[in-house]
Amino acid sequence: MNRLVLPFVRETIAFLLLALFFYLFLFVDFHELSFDVPSGILMVNTMFLSILLEAIPFILLGVFVSALIQTFVSEDFIKRVLPKNAVFALLPAALLGAVFPICECAIVPIVRRLIKKGMPLHLGVVFLVGAPILNPVVFASTYYAFGSNLEIVYTRMGLAFVLSIVVGFIIYLIFKNKGQLKVSKETFAGEIVVKEEGSRKQSKFKATLFHASDEFFEMGKFLIFGAFIASLFQTFLDRSFLTEIGMSEWLSPAIMMGFGYILSLCSEADAFVAASFGGTFSTGSLVAFLVYGPMLDLKNTIMLFAFFRAKFVAVFMVVVTIVVYLSIIVCQQLFL
Q: Which family does the entry's similarity section mention (predicted)?
């Protein structure tokens, strides 16, 4: 019984603290208080809330899609629709990413649920890195932000499609689809509750809500921590240093990849930030920012470490970083 009560108490306390934070931000004027709050702290607060408010709708979308998968999609169905050959299945997995309007804020719970349902690890990785860029909402926002430079738009989409397959193939060669998910006590207890309630003929609607709420609170604490760390970097990072090396053919893509990782922008809004650097950074470095950031950023790194084994996450980060950087260098030499 304590195994079920303690997680509920912790989540309730976390929710109350978050509610208090929002109340202080929205209704308390810090300038009227007797002490002066440093401008840097206020900027961290503003950045933190902007990242959080931007990400929460997509987290909600992700956990509901994850809950729907848990409730309505069976392991047998996934095994039926996916090609048996591990290599041939890479292409359908990449095409699947173009269907769902999911950004990187919401992709982790969906991929974790698909893997739990029987999707091979390397196909989950293809979906993890491809879906946040290939979906139609991201294409539309990138087209709108770079309407005068369609080369960036099509290069972003083309690279995302090809690299998602390449990354998935490399992960398959390294891990051979061995299980890399963590299984926490809370998750195991939650699955027991689901089975018990299912034995009472629980409706699918209630089951979906149960899974969604459980996963939202589980994901939310890592989102909050990641958003806070990202807000610190956004506030105190010296951007003048970046502009000094922005046109370097070799350094600027790496710098913009790091910038995309730290800023942790939603993939449906990052194109507008990238467009603001158009006069400072090369075309290749802008594409690096637009491709690498949605595949790997500070927020989803923390989520990945929370729900996948550390060795897998470390290898995944190294593979994505090397593959994206080398592809940008090649593209710069050929046509960018």
A: Belongs to the UPF0718 family.
Contact 80, 109 (CB under 8 A): no
Strand partners, 181: 308
Q: Give whole-number Cα distances, 180 to 89, 109, 171, 217, 222, in Å.
A: 19, 14, 11, 22, 19
Task: List Cβ neighbours of 230 (8 Å cut-off, separation of 6 or more).
Answer: 47, 51, 262, 263, 264, 297, 298, 299
Query: What CA–CA distance (Å, rounded) separates 246 from 249?
Result: 8
Distance CA 104, CA 211 (A): 20
Q: Give bridge partners of residue 308 from the DSSP assignment.
A: 181
**pLDDT per residue over 87-132, tens digit each?**
888 998 888 777 766 777 678 888 888 888 888 999 999 989 998 8
CA–CA gap between residue 148 and residue 146 (Å, rounded): 5
Both tokens of 139, joined, read: 């294409």
Angle between helix axes 251-263 and 298-307 (nearest 10 degrees) is 70
Q: Which helix (H) or strand (E) holds 78?
A: helix 75-81
- Alpha-carbon distance of 69 to 124, in angstroms, equals 14
CB distance 293 to 267 below 8 Å: yes
C-beta separation of 204 from 212 below 8 A: no
Q: How far apart are CA 149 and CA 333, in angstroms?
A: 18
Cα–Cα distance between 161 and 167 in angstroms, integer? 10
The H or E element containing residue 257 is helix 251-263
Positive or negative, the Cα torsion across 228, 231, 237, 243? positive
Q: What is the pLDDT of residue 130?
A: 92
